[in-house]
């Protein structure tokens, strides 16, 4: 397998997991003679090959990918050269990574803005990219999202369990549920109280 292929990134299209897998496959399928890029040093070639294997599974931040490669005993110089080539191929962009992370984690896990910011910091994403990724999430969005989560949770309960529910216990569980997704306690209590009141209203 050669990793000397040209940039497979389609201009202006965000690298999602599916597009990333397609782009990685395109790079791996290229013959070395088809590239106008200089060959990588042998150690960097090995590191770039390992990077492509990691990127087949999901997008990663540059910091995350660097740490994984260093953990596989690739030298820092080889990792630097490999990551430079991966960027040229369009497979490594922290701004795109942050945007995709926010969209996916918010949709599938219901994460709050604060929780998403913390997760991205843990992955070594720069503050400027984090700010851009969460810029569309304001206080009203947080309230609406938390309300949807609580309503979905309550909707799974049977009519009998709603009648027999210990409201204080239910309140604690729902507030904790939102707290695990990063929502502030004050917001969580406001949303939960409103939705529980709606449940018991005639």
Automatic annotation (TrEMBL):
Its main location: cytoplasm. The keyword Cytoplasm applies. InterPro entries: RecX_HTH_1st (IPR053926), RecX_HTH_2nd (IPR053924), Regulatory_RecX (IPR003783), WH-like_DNA-bd_sf (IPR036388). Pfam families: RecX_HTH1, RecX_HTH2. The keyword Ribosomal protein does not apply. One of its GO terms (biological process) is regulation of DNA repair. Residues 7-21 have a biased composition (Basic and acidic residues). Residues 49-85 form the RecX first three-helical domain. It is found in: Cytoplasm. Keywords: Cytoplasm. Residues 93-133 form the RecX second three-helical domain. One of its GO terms (cellular component) is cytoplasm. Residues 1-43 are annotated as: Disordered. It comes from the Bacteria. HAMAP family: RecX. Modulates RecA activity. This is Regulatory protein RecX. It comes from Dietzia natronolimnaea. The gene is recX.
